C-alpha cells in the first residue's frame, strides 16, 4: 500500500476514536455510557442515525450486556466493537474472559478512569491494568493521533489468523479523551482497505459448518485451550509490529511494540506508558541539554509484553525508574514494574530499578515530578544505593 | 459577587456541601425537599434514617443530607441497602435512584427487591434520560422521544416503573411529579411508613438534556407539562393522562419481618 495524504484536523481523543470507528464501519457496536468514554458512543450513534455507517448500534442496559452483545455478534461472524471506562470495564469482567477464551477478535476502545471508592471519574490505569490477565491484547496511546491509529490497527491485530484475540487500546481519560490535539485522518477509503473485510474462521451462522461456542471444558481439555491462548499472545508479539510497519507505509507513522527515546546511549532511563510519555520526552530533552544522559522507554504494547526487547534496551542502564499509574496493593511493586523487573532478571541483567506510582485519580503529572524522578536516579547512580524501591510522586504523605 | 444562599436545616450538610451540583432548573432538588419534609413530618431523627444511592445526578443526593448515607455503584443501590436493612432492621432506609440506575443497569435488583418485598423505600427520580452522562436514552425514554443516543427518536418501548413494581410484588407503589411537591411529601411519608417494599416514582425535569432535546422549554414549562399531563383522579378526566397518587397499597409480609419470624421460630426449636 502506498503512502496516502492524511487530512489534518483538530479533535479530542474521544472524537478521534469515533471518527476511526466511522471509517471502520463495524457490523455491531454495543455500549453503555460512562464518563469519560461517553463521547465516543454518543458521536458514533449520530453516525448511525445519519446513515453514515451500516453499523447496528445497540444502546444496551449495562456494560455486562455490552460485552455480551459483542461476543454474540462476533461469534455470529460480525465485526464487533465497544467502548468503556473504569467501572464499566469492571462490570464487563466475566465476559472479558469469555471473549478471549472463545477467541473472538472484538475491539474495545478503553478510556482510562480510576476505580471507586472513593468515587472518581478521572484518569489512572487501575481499570485496564486490572484487566491485564483477561487475555486481551493491550495497546496504550500516547497522543490523540495514536488513539486514532491504534484504534484502526487493533482490528487488524485482533483478526490476524495467528492471533484471534480481543484487543483493546487505552487512552488516558480527559488528558487524551477530552483534549483537543492536531492529528491526521486517513481517507475513508484507505481505512476501509487497510482493515479489509473480516472473514471469520468459525462463524455461528455458517450452516455448512455448524459450530458451538463456549461448551463445557473440564480437566480434559481446558488446560490445552488456555495454553493455546498463551501461544496466541506470543504470536501477537510478531503480529503487532508487522501491522505497525504496514500502517507506517500507509501513513508515515510506524509503530512497534515499544519505542526508545534518546535511550541508546542513556545511562538513566524511565519506563512509561500512556500520555505521560509526552511529558517525559520534554524532560529528557531538557536534561540532555544539561548534559545528563537521560533516556526513555515507552511501552506501546503491554499485553503481550515485549520482555526480550525491553531487557535488551534497558540491560546496560545504570539506574531505571518504572512509572505506574495504578496500584497492586500489597505487592512488591506495580504492574509495569513487575514486567520490567522480570524481563531484566530473566535475561540476566540486574541494574538498579525503582518504581514510582503517579497520577492516581487524575492527579496532575507535571514536568517537575518527572524531573524529580531523574534527579533521584542521578543520586542512586552516584551513591550506588537503590534506597526504597517503591516511591510515590506528587502525593501528600 | 454575592455569596450563594446556603440552606440551613438540621437534615442537611448545609455548610459543607452546598451549592449543589445540579443544574439550574433541575427537578432533583424538589425531590430532595420533599424527602426532607416527609422525614420531618414523621418526626424521625436524622440518625434513624439512612439514604443510599447509586450513581447519577440523582445519585448525588445523599451527599447533601445529614442522614446515614452511602453513595454506592451504578445500579447497585438496592443490594447495598438490602445488606444495611438486614443488619439494622430498626433503620428507615431510603434508596434514591435515577431511572437508569434503577431500571437499566440495576433493573434486576429492582424486580428482586420488589419480589422479596424488603422494607426499603425506593424513590425513583424518572427524568426519562441518563442525566449525568449527557442525556442518553434510558429504559424510560418514551417511544419517539429524543436522546443524545437517539437523535431521531427512541425506537424501543419504555418501561412503566409502577407496573413493574406492582407485578414484581411491592407492597406500595405511588407516582407523582416535581410539580406536585406537596403531594410528593405525603406519598414519600406513606412509603417510609409502609411495611414491605415501597416505590415512589417521581417524574422529574431534566431541562438540560431531556427538555432541550425534546423542545419542551425551560424548567417552568416542563413543570407545567407535568401539571397539564397528569391526573390524580383518572376516572373523572379524559384518559391519556399519566396517573398520579397511590397506585398499589396492599398488606403483604415484608422480608425482614418474615426473616425475624423464621429465626425466632428456629431458635425456639433449637431451645436457644
Ligand atoms: C458500571 C457503570 N457504568 C456506567 C456508569 C456511568 N453512569 C453514571 S450515571 C449514569 C446514568 C445516569 O442516569 P440515571 O440513572 O437515569 O440518573 P440521572 O443522572 O438521570 O439522575 C451512567 C451511565 C457508571 N458510573 N458505572
Ligand atoms: S443533567 Fe439533568 S438531571 Fe442532571 S442535574 Fe442537570 S438538569 Fe438535573
Q: What's this model, at a glance?
A:
The complex is a heterodimer of chains A (397) and B (272). Chain A contains 13 helices and 15 strands.
CATH class value of the largest domain in chain A: Alpha Beta
Class by SSE composition of chain A:
alpha/beta
**CATH structural architecture of chain B:** 3-Layer(aba) Sandwich
Domain tally of chain B: 1
Q: Got a strand count of chain B?
A: 9
Number of domain units of chain A: 2
The count of β-strands of chain A is 15
Salient structural properties:
heterodimer, A: 397 residues, alpha/beta, Rossmann fold, seven-stranded mixed sheet, six-stranded mixed sheet, 13 helices, 41% helix, globular, B: 272 residues, two-stranded parallel ribbon, 36% helix, 16% strand, binds thiamine diphosphate, binds iron/sulfur cluster
Protein described:
The complex is a heterodimer of chains A (397) and B (272). With 397 residues, chain A is of the alpha/beta class. Chain A has two domains: 7-251, Rossmann fold (3-Layer(aba) Sandwich), CATH 3.40.50.970; 258-392, Rossmann fold (3-Layer(aba) Sandwich), CATH 3.40.50. Chain A is built from 13 helices and 15 strands. In chain A, strand 10, helix 10 (276-289) and strand 11 (294-299) form a beta-alpha-beta unit. In chain A, helix 1 runs parallel beside helix 7 (144-159), helix 3 (63-75) packs parallel to helix 5 and helix 10 crosses helix 13 (367-383). With 272 residues, chain B is α/β, with parallel strands linked by helices. Chain B has one domain (8-270): 3-Layer(aba) Sandwich (Rossmann fold). In chain B, helix 2 crosses helix 7 and helix 5 packs across helix 6 (161-168). The longest helix of chain B has 15 residues, at 255-269. Chain B is globular and about 65 Å long. The mean pLDDT of chain B is 94. The interface between A and B is medium-sized, with 21 and 20 residues. Thiamine diphosphate (TPP) sits between chains B (55-58, 74, 98-101, 125, 127, 129-133, 138) and A (32-34, 63, 87-88, 91).
Amino acid at each position: 500500500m502506498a503512502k496516502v495524504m492524511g487530512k489534518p484536523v483538530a479533535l479530542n481523543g474521544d472524537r478521534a476514536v469515533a471518527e476511526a470507528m466511522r471509517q471502520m464501519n463495524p457490523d455491531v457496536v454495543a455500549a453503555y455510557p460512562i464518563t469519560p468514554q461517553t463521547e465516543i458512543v454518543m458521536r458514533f450513534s449520530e453516525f448511525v442515525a445519519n446513515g453514515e455507517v451500516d453499523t447496528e448500534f445497540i444502546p444496551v442496559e449495562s456494560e455486562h450486556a455490552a460485552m455480551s452483545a459483542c461476543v454474540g455478534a462476533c461469534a455470529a461472524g460480525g465485526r464487533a466493537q465497544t467502548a468503556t471506562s473504569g467501572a464499566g470495564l469492571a462490570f464487563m469482567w466475566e465476559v472479558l474472559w469469555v471473549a478471549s477464551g472463545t477467541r473472538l477478535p472484538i475491539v474495545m476502545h478503553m478510556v482510562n478512569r480510576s476505580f471507586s471508592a472513593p468515587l472518581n471519574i478521572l484518569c489512572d490505569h487501575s481499570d485496564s491494568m486490572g484487566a491485564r490477565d483477561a487475555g486481551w491484547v493491550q495497546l496504550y496511546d500516547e497522543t490523540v493521533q495514536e488513539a486514532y491509529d491504534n484504534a484502526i490497527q487493533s482490528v487488524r491485530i485482533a483478526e490476524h489468523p495467528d492471533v484471534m484475540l480481543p484487543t483493546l487500546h487505552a487512552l488516558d481519560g480527559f488528558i487524551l479523551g477530552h483534549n483537543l490535539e492536531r492529528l491526521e485522518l486517513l481517507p475513508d477509503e484507505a481505512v476501509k482497505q487497510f482493515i479489509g473485510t473480516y472473514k471469520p474462521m468459525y462463524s455461528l451462522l455458517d450452516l455448512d459448518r455448524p459450530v458451538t461456542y463456549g461448551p463445557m471444558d473440564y480437566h480434559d481439555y481446558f488446560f490445552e485451550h488456555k495454553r493455546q491462548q498463551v501461544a496466541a499472545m506470543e504470536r501477537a508479539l510478531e503480529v503487532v509490529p508487522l501491522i505497525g510497519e504496514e500502517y507506517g507505509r500507509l501513513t508515515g507513522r510506524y509503530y512497534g511494540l515499544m519505542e526508545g527515546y534518546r535511550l541508546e546511549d542513556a545511562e538513566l532511563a524511565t519506563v512509561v506508558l500512556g500520555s505521560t510519555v509526552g511529558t517525559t520526552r520534554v524532560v529528557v530533552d531538557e536534561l540532555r541539554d544539561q548534559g545528563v544522559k537521560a533516556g526513555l522507554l515507552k511501552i506501546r504494547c503491554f499485553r503481550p509484553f515485549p520482555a526480550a526487547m525491553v531487557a535488551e534496551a534497558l540491560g546496560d542502564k545504570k539506574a531505571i525508574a518504572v512509572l505506574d499509574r495504578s496500584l497492586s496493593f500489597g505487592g512488591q511493586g506495580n504492574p509495569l514494574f513487575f514486567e520490567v523487573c522480570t524481563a531484566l532478571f530473566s535475561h540476566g541483567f540486574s541494574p538498579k530499578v525503582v518504581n514510582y506510582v503517579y497520577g492516581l485519580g487524575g492527579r496532575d503529572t507535571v514536568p517537575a515530578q518527572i524531573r524529580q524522578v531523574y534527579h533521584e536516579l542521578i543520586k542512586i547512580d552516584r551513591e550506588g544505593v537503590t534506597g526504597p524501591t517503591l516511591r510515590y510522586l506528587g502525593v501528600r504523605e | 459577587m454575592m455569596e450563594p444562599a446556603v440552606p440551613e436545616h438540621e437534615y442537611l450538610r448545609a455548610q459543607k456541601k452546598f451549592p449543589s451540583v445540579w443544574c439550574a432548573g433541575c427537578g432533583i432538588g424538589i425531590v430532595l425537599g420533599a424527602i426532607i419534609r416527609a422525614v420531618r413530618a414523621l418526626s424521625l431523627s436524622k440518625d434513624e434514617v439512612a439514604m443510599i444511592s447509586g450513581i447519577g445526578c440523582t445519585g448525588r443526593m445523599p451527599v447533601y443530607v445529614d442522614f446515614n448515607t452511602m453513595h454506592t455503584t451504578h445500579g447497585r443501590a438496592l443490594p447495598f441497602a438490602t445488606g444495611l436493612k438486614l443488619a439494622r432492621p430498626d433503620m428507615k432506609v431510603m434508596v434514591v435512584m435515577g431511572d437508569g440506575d434503577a431500571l437499566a443497569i440495576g433493573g434486576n435488583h429492582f424486580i428482586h427487591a420488589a419480589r422479596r418485598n424488603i422494607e426499603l423505600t425506593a424513590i425513583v427520580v424518572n427524568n426519562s434520560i441518563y442525566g449525568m452522562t449527557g442525556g442518553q436514552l434510558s429504559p424510560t425514554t418514551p417511544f419517539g422521544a429524543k436522546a443524545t443516543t437517539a437523535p431521531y427518536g427512541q425506537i424501543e418501548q419504555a418501561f412503566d416503573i409502577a407496573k413493574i413494581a406492582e407485578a414484581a410484588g411491592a407492597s406500595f407503589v405511588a407516582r407523582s411529579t416535581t410539580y406536585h411537591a406537596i403531594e410528593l411529601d405525603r406519598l414519600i411519608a406513606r412509603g417510609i411508613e409502609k411495611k414491605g417494599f415501597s416505590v415512589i416514582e417521581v417524574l422529574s425535569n431534566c431541562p438540560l438534556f431531556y427538555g432541550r432535546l425534546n423542545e419542551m422549554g425551560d424548567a417552568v414549562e416542563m413543570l407545567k407539562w407535568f401539571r397539564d399531563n397528569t391526573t390524580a383522579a383518572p376516572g373523572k378526566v379524559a384518559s391519556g393522562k399519566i396517573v398520579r397518587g397511590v397506585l398499589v397499597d396492599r398488606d403483604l409480609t415484608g422480608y425482614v419481618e418474615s426473616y425475624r419470624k423464621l429465626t425466632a421460630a428456629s431458635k425456639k426449636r433449637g431451645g436457644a
